[in-house]
Specification:
Elements (H helix, E strand, L loop, with lengths): L3 E2 L2 E4 L1 H9 L1 H9 L2 E3 L4 H21 L6 H14 L10 H14 L7 E3 L10 E13 L2 E15 L4 E9 L4 H9 L1 H14 L5 E9 L6 E4 L4 E4 L9 E9 L6 H22 L11 E2 L2 E2 L3 H4 L6 H5 L4 E3 L8
Parallel strand pairs: 2-6, 7-8
Antiparallel strand pairs: 1-2, 3-14, 4-6, 5-6, 6-7, 8-11, 9-10, 12-13
Length: 324
């Protein structure tokens, strides 16, 4: 979806991440709407895990029975419909093993929460897309914040929690510290407050740490654990952890996020006005997931970058949280 249309600028968390990482990266992805032609095995793997969890959350929220076999069938179809020539260890069997381990670790019906209900639609608050008017006009454009909330939970104590599923192969202290300060979750809490009129108590990161060793692991039917096939291996193929952050204490966190987001959008739209997009080189060219998706484009002389963006190495970026 074109982010600038009908006098509005539609911005989501992914766009904010790009804007604050590198203006030229944001320009290529948001304004020029380009992305690599080859899908990322990591993003695809995580996305398919999300689909399997969505199935479980939705039926749980409706109070209907669901089956692990149906989840496995869904994963099988997703992988078959979107084959990759090189997917490495992030394959169908690894996804099945991870989901089985997740279901055993978090058995449905025995958890200390229920899935919230969308009071407007009466449907479970699962994969809830939103487009929230910020009531701000910046550089002639009305700012609309968009996104998609994985699931909203209500605990037995009555706390309303925005939950986001995360898959990562590097689950550790650094990853958790990164999520702790991530603006994404406060943005989702802000959007939920604007849509419902009631501020949620906080957010939960539901992390699935699937390591490369999961390709040499199996689900133990007796213990309900994912364990290495080799008894001599000390690998930990699957780590599961949830952490809740309460954003009401200290108060004002969501309002601070709102002001920060608008400042970031203002600066980016200034770049759009001037048609000048600085490149924040070196520190962000190579991150924890490897090279920037436009690394090879930036390495070219300026006069050749346009041709590179329009080459077969890239395709149109049509992704939107409103229609994914």
């Amino acid at each position: 979806m074109n982010p600038i249309r009908d006098g509005c600028f539609f911005v989501d968390n992914s766009a904010i991440e790009l804007i604050t990482t590198c203006p030229w990266l944001a320009y290529a992805s948001i304004i020029r709407q380009r992305r690599p032609a080859d899908d990322s095995p990591a993003l695809r793997f995580g996305g398919f895990i999300h689909k399997a969890l969505e199935y479980r959350n939705r039926l749980t929220g409706e109070g209907k029975p669901w089956s692990e076999q149906a989840q496995i069938a869904l994963l099988s179809k997703l992988f078959a419909d979107s084959p990759l020539e090189f997917e490495g260890w992030r394959n169908l069997q690894s996804a099945i093993t991870a989901i089985r381990g997740y279901n055993a670790y978090y058995p449905p019906g025995k958890e200390d929460y229920k899935v919230a209900t969308n009071q407007t639609t009466g449907q479970p608050y699962v994969e809830q897309a939103f487009a929230v008017d910020t009531h701000k006009v910046i550089r002639g454009l009305r700012i609309i914040y968009t996104g998609r909330i994985d699931v909203k939970k209500i605990t037995s104590a009555g706390a309303k929690i925005i939950c986001d599923h995360k898959t990562s192969s590097t689950l550790g202290d650094t990853t958790w510290a990164d999520w702790e300060v991530s603006p994404q979750f406060r943005g989702y809490c802000w959007a939920d407050r604007e849509c419902t009129g009631e501020e949620p108590d906080g957010y939960e990161v539901d992390a699935i740490g699937a390591k490369e060793s999961i390709s040499n692991a199996m689900f133990n039917e007796v213990t309900g654990q994912v364990v290495p096939i080799s008894a001599k291996s000390k690998a930990v193929p699957l780590e599961l952890m949830r952490q809740t952050t309460y954003t009401k204490v200290p108060p004002g966190q969501l309002d601070e996020w709102y002001e920060n987001m608008l400042q970031q959008v203002d600066w980016f739209l200034y770049c759009v006005e001037k048609n000048s997009f600085p490149r924040f080189r070196y520190n962000h060219c190579i991150g924890k997931y490897g090279k920037c998706q436009f690394y090879n484009v930036c390495a070219l002389p300026e006069q050749n970058r346009e041709d590179a963006l329009m080459s077969a190495a890239y395709k149109e970026n049509t992704w939107s949280p409103l229609f994914s």
